[in-house]
Amino acid sequence: MNRKFKVGLIRVLTTEDEEVLQSHGKQIMEYFPELEVVTKCIPDQYEGIHSPELGEIAIPKIVETARSFTDVDMIIVSCADDPGVAEIRKVLPDIPVTGGGETTVALALKYGSRIGVLGITDYAPQAYMRMIPEQMILGRPEGVHSTLDLMTPEGKASVLKLGMKLKEQGAEVIALACTGLATIGIAKDLEKETGLPVIDPVMAEGMFAYFEYLRKK
Amino acid sequence: MNRKFKVGLIRVLTTEDEEVLQSHGKQIMEYFPELEVVTKCIPDQYEGIHSPELGEIAIPKIVETARSFTDVDMIIVSCADDPGVAEIRKVLPDIPVTGGGETTVALALKYGSRIGVLGITDYAPQAYMRMIPEQMILGRPEGVHSTLDLMTPEGKASVLKLGMKLKEQGAEVIALACTGLATIGIAKDLEKETGLPVIDPVMAEGMFAYFEYLRKK
């Protein structure tokens, strides 16, 4: 038996709660049983990244965390903004590195040329800006500013309402632009509500990790 | 136990050789053991599709073949030109349908913005024209006009030489533009030769079938 393909996953949210910490890795291992995911989070950033400034502060910490993995076949920065992905590639050129944003956008492009981008910030994550600057329809759910707001019935209703609005504006597919939306598993509800394919960033990260595994096999 | 996710796969090459017929389905089931692939080929087209005219002739036969599947969860047209994919979507709106072209292009976009397109025709398949018209660097290996030419040492050398040329022209990733190139398993050799990621259309089709399976689960 070959050993499993080992993925080092970086959470950009500091947490001591083991369940929160492991949630993305656990989802990916459920989707792709061939993968073994080891998770670490960056230090001293309990609010995660929800502004460009917080992204800047996080990047050196993300690179340091990437370097601290030993014996992994791949690294995922589990955030839709792909913070530090380019920087890690420079310091660890021999290992595949990806993030939640570029993987979500790539999968979304299979499903349509006009892409509804549904996140919790007023700016689009960098891969969305780079890969689909003119194909993007950007929205933020009313009243939702953090993943905590998504846990309430009002927050969830607001996300579904925005999904319908993006569809009315011409979106052929919805790309979630925050891994927090993956954590709460809203993709399925959004698909039901809108009838559009919805791309979940944590599933997207996992897809490309599995793709790297197949290509290396 | 749930039953497996059943994929109806259409070969656009008529063949009575069971091994040739099943080769794409077999590859996909090896990559993704959760999928069950049932293969059919279109009638009376022993040369497959290697010109726009042959594509036109094939489309009604492909749609008819798609309609003949019973009890499948998804349909794949296993050809980099995605012939009939749009037409099948119209007549079978309740089932996911995809092809080798759009899936290969979507995966390639994760790896770079300048995409080397390596096929065996002088024209690019339609998804490549639609999705990456300005990001494409097109090439055809010298002396190679059909998949048969690829089986010779000269043919293979010619493919590897073209891979290097596409890299020199700025390609950051190579998207194979013919499933015949997947059949002969050249992606791995091309990756070794060029150092670039190479996207194999049969693997790409399988990736998106697995993605549909995960989304439905």
Can you walk through the features of this model?
Two copies of one chain form a homodimer. The first copy, chain A, has a four-stranded parallel beta sheet, sandwiched between helices. In chain A, strands 6-5-7-8 form a four-stranded parallel beta sheet, with helices on both faces. Chain A has two domains: 109 residues, Rossmann fold (3-Layer(aba) Sandwich); 100 residues, Rossmann fold, CATH 3.40.50.1860. The first copy, chain A, is an alpha/beta fold and 217 residues long. Chain A is 48% helix and 16% strand. In chain A, β5, α5 and β6 form a beta-alpha-beta unit. Chains A and B meet through α4, α9 and α10 of A and α4, α9 and α10 of B.
Q: Briefly, what is this?
A:
The structure is a homodimer of 217-residue chains. By secondary structure, chain A is α/β, with parallel strands linked by helices.
Strand content of chain A: 15-25%
Q: Tell me, what is the CATH class of the largest domain in chain A?
A: Alpha Beta
Oligomeric state of shown chains: homodimer
Average pLDDT of chain A works out at 93
Rg of chain A, please? 16 Å
How far is the N terminus from the C terminus of chain A?
12 Å
What is the third-level CATH name, the topology of the largest domain in chain A?
A: Rossmann fold
Number of beta strands of chain A: 8
Strand order of the largest sheet of chain A: 2-1-3-4
Q: What secondary-structure arrangement, pairings included, does this model have?
A:
2 copies of one chain form a homodimer.
Chain A: E1 5-11, H1 18-31, E2 35-41, H2 52-68, E3 74-77, H3 85-91, E4 97-99, H4 100-111, E5 115-118, H5 126-131, E6 136-139, H6 147-150, H7 153-168, E7 173-176, H8 179-183, H9 187-194, E8 198-199, H10 201-216
Parallel strand pairs in A: 1-2, 1-3, 3-4, 5-6, 5-7, 7-8
Helix pairs in contact in A: 1-10, 2-3, 4-10, 7-9
